[in-house]
Design brief:
Shape: globular
Helix content: 25-40%
CATH topology of one domain: Rossmann fold
Strand order of the largest sheet: 6-7-4-3-2-5-8
Number of strands: 22
Strand content: 15-25%
CATH superfamily of one domain: P-loop containing nucleotide triphosphate hydrolases
Distance between the termini: 42 Å
Bound molecules: adenosine-5'-diphosphate, magnesium ion
Number of helices: 26
Structural class: alpha/beta
């Protein structure tokens, strides 16, 4: 396109004018809106349409392009209708078979036509053949492709030809000017524009291997760009936070913290003491804390949260505590309230089920500052909720909250030019590589020690065929006074999925265990009913609790010593670990039975094996990361922020190091270039990465 040509409207702008076509809608769904999006939509693989293979020289199994004249075109109707086309060149002939075809096929491949076909060559009964090749009518002088033909990730209703054209023009229009000052990019990497042109249209002699395994310098350049943008944005967030102010919170001598420690029924473990001090030091600074408290299931995070809350409240500020669901908020913070309320604290509850007058009362208490502790679910971050003096926000099971929600919480104090301190808690530790890249801006405290007196959980993996044996074992256990969890993956799913859903299992266990109470708990029950069921299980009246994953986190019933997880193959590793953490809370030896329905894939097997082999949540998180990749691991879908598209943290650690070195230099010396780099690569996602 000549430089003077008027800018063509972008696909998105053009689409606004007239109704969108199906391919346009499909493109939007894939996020292909701006020219840069199109330019960065890279091929999955390539097809070589740059050469013609003489028919006589084709080999079985090769995917090749041939050209010749149609010498026969007929429909065979024995059994199924098949279109048979015979193609000939100087070296031999080739039979094309089409099982799906239209009258237009016969027209373009009429006898005497010259056509070019591409497909996989087979040796059939009648000699060389191709099934459903791509084809096009050509003239003897129709040129061949000069570059390899890209095959893009597409979706239903989005033909490759349409996508190719859209991407080729997007690539031309996109602003791919070099943003980084000379000498800053590793010299082995090509300029961005060259890299992208190459990746979309590689010359025929390009080595496909290096393109497909992404080790080609053109790929490396893209990965470097992406990692750099991400590192800049992280460091920027870090620097911005350093400028923010938060209330400096200090516990008073003889105050709430000391009183709390005095009423606790146990002494803190060394690890709990250490992390509590780390948190107290942060809180005392006039700068918002942004700290993750990680510790395995059962490691005792709640008491650490209570101590942090006590510091904030002692200093005259409010503390908000959030858990992902109502039942968890209740279960999770019950102890904390039991400890703190007797010390004279005002607690407000804010969950979806607190309604009407009661809700207004809670809202007023938060807004006036009368409630020192506000506990709840997502309801806490709704717009209507205001705090008089929010000093500390604690989020339990932080990975279950979206990034946007964490951001909203931080803004709850914005009216005072201050931000609250943030403490996030998680039983799913972040592996080091992830911590370095995504959470460079996050301080981490780790509880690496369990409270004394725990007996390790024994995990057993059985095929579903052992179900009756497992039920017999349950009967023995409950007869001896034990309590049992039975976890099912889904409730009332369609029969087609062949899931034993929780209701059926409940009926089955009620029948199998006469004289014992078997309860059912699932996500669709009204909160009051859930609470009633939980209460019966906690008090020991109920022997068996059949539940969907609503019990995943936080439930604390020390007498429960057996857990059965049905369809264990359908759960994520971290989720299984969380679930398993519901048993083994008391001194009795506990067992977790993972029932699976085969056949299992190799990954499926290694996942369940991992569960049986280790009780260490950190080790499990590491394996989970290996198996699932970082996006899944961090619940990226939930946050709406796509994480790294091109780079791979393990494979590209050298590029990552280079990006980490360059990012601060750019921020210091070329802040504008740094800014544009972030905008180009992350756009609105930059904000997300800071949360
Ligand atoms: P999690 O880290 O999974 O949130 P909790 O805070 O629920 O763990 O603690 C698990 C159990 O261990 C609770 O019953 C809690 O009261 C108990 N606990 C916590 N800290 C200690 C300790 N230092 N000594 C003995 N028991 C403790
Ligand atoms: Mg907890």
């Amino acid at each position: 396109m000549p430089a003077s040509a008027p800018p063509r409207p972008s696909p998105a702008a053009a689409a606004a004018a007239k109704p969108k076509s199906a391919p346009q809608k499909a493109m939007e769904k894939l996020g292909l809106l701006r020219d840069i999006d199109l330019a960065l939509h890279l091929p999955l693989r390539y097809e070589d349409e740059t050469q013609i293979t003489p028919i006589g020289r084709t080999r079985e199994g090769d995917t090749v392009q041939c050209e010749g004249e149609v010498i026969e075109c007929r429909i065979e109707t024995r059994g199924r209708r098949v279109l048979l086309v015979r193609l000939e060149d100087e070296t031999g002939d080739l039979l094309l078979r089409f099982i799906h075809f239209y009258p237009s096929h016969q027209k373009s491949m009429a006898v005497g036509q010259r056509i070019r076909v591409r497909g996989e060559l087979r040796h059939g009964f009648f000699g060389r053949e191709m099934v459903h090749p791509t084809f096009k009518a050509v003239q003897p002088d129709t040129p061949l492709a000069e570059a390899l033909t890209p095959v893009y990730p597409a979706s239903a209703g989005l033909p490759q030809t349409y996508l190719r054209r859209a991407i080729a023009s997007g690539l031309q229009r996109a602003d791919l000017r070099e943003l980084l000052p000379q000498g800053t990019v590793p010299s082995s990497l090509p300029p961005l524009r060259d890299a992208l042109n190459f990746l979309h249209h590689p010359p025929p002699q390009a080595r496909l291997g290096t393109l497909e395994d992404h080790s080609h310098p053109a790929w490396q350049r893209l990965k470097f760009e992406e990692l750099l943008a991400q590192q800049i944005s992280q460091m920027q967030a870090q620097r911005e936070r350093a400028l923010l102010k938060a209330p400096a919170l200090r516990a008073k001598p003889g105050g709430l913290v000391e009183r709390l420690l005095a009423v606790l029924p146990f002494g803190l473990t060394g690890a709990q003491q250490r992390v509590s001090e780390e948190i107290a030091q942060d809180l005392a600074l006039g700068q918002p804390m942004h700290r993750l408290l990680q510790g395995d299931v059962g490691s005792g995070k709640t008491v650490v949260a209570a101590l942090a809350a006590a510091v904030a409240i002692d200093a005259g500020w409010q503390c908000a505590l959030m858990a992902p669901t109502e039942i968890l908020a209740e279960q999770h913070f019950k102890k904390l309230i039991d400890w703190l309320e007797p010390l004279g604290l005002q607690v407000a509850w804010l969950t979806g089920s607190v309604k009407g007058k009661a809700r207004q009362k809670m809202l007023d208490a938060a807004a006036s500052g009368a409630a020192q502790l506000v506990i709840g679910t997502h309801a806490v971050i709704e717009d209507k909720v205001t705090f008089a003096r929010l000093g500390l926000a604690i989020i339990d099971e932080q990975h279950r909250f979206g990034v946007a929600q964490r951001l909203a919480l931080r803004r709850k104090l914005a009216s005072m030019d201050l931000e609250p301190h943030m403490l996030m808690m998680s039983a799913t530790p972040i592996p080091r590589t992830l911590a370095m890249t995504y959470f460079a801006d996050l301080a981490v405290s780790t509880i690496d020690e369990l409270p004394p007196g725990r007996t390790p959980i024994v995990t057993k993996v059985f095929a579903d065929g052992k179900r009756q044996d497992v039920i017999e074992k349950i009967a023995q256990e409950v007869a001896g006074g034990a309590q049992v969890y039975w976890v099912c993956p889904l409730i009332e799913e369609s029969e087609a999925l062949d899931l034993n859903n929780a209701t059926e299992t409940h009926v089955e266990l009620v029948d199998a265990l006469p004289g014992f109470e078997v309860g059912l708990l699932h996500g669709r029950m009204p909160p009051a009913e859930k609470a009633a069921v939980m209460a019966r299980f906690s008090s020991g009246e109920m022997s068996v609790l059949v539940a969907t994953t609503v019990i995943e986190v936080g439930v604390d019933v020390p007498n429960a010593s057996l857990m059965v997880i049905e369809h264990a193959e359908r759960f994520g590793l971290s989720q299984l670990h969380q679930l398993r953490g519901r048993v083994g809370r008391g001194a009795v030896a506990s067992v977790c039975v993972l029932l699976y329905t085969g056949p299992l894939s190799d990954t499926g097997k290694s996942r369940l094996r991992a569960m049986a082999e280790t009780n260490d949540g950190f080790e499990i998180a590491r394996r989970d990361l290996d198996i699932r990749g970082p996006g899944e691991f961090m619940g990226a879908r939930q946050s709406g922020a796509e994480l790294l598209r091109f780079a791979d943290l393990q494979e590209d650690s050298l590029l990552l190091q280079a990006a980490r070195r360059l990012a601060p230099q750019l921020l210091d010396k070329y802040p504008e270039a740094a800014q544009r780099q972030v905008a180009r690569w992350l756009g609105s996602k930059a904000e997300f990465l800071k949360a």
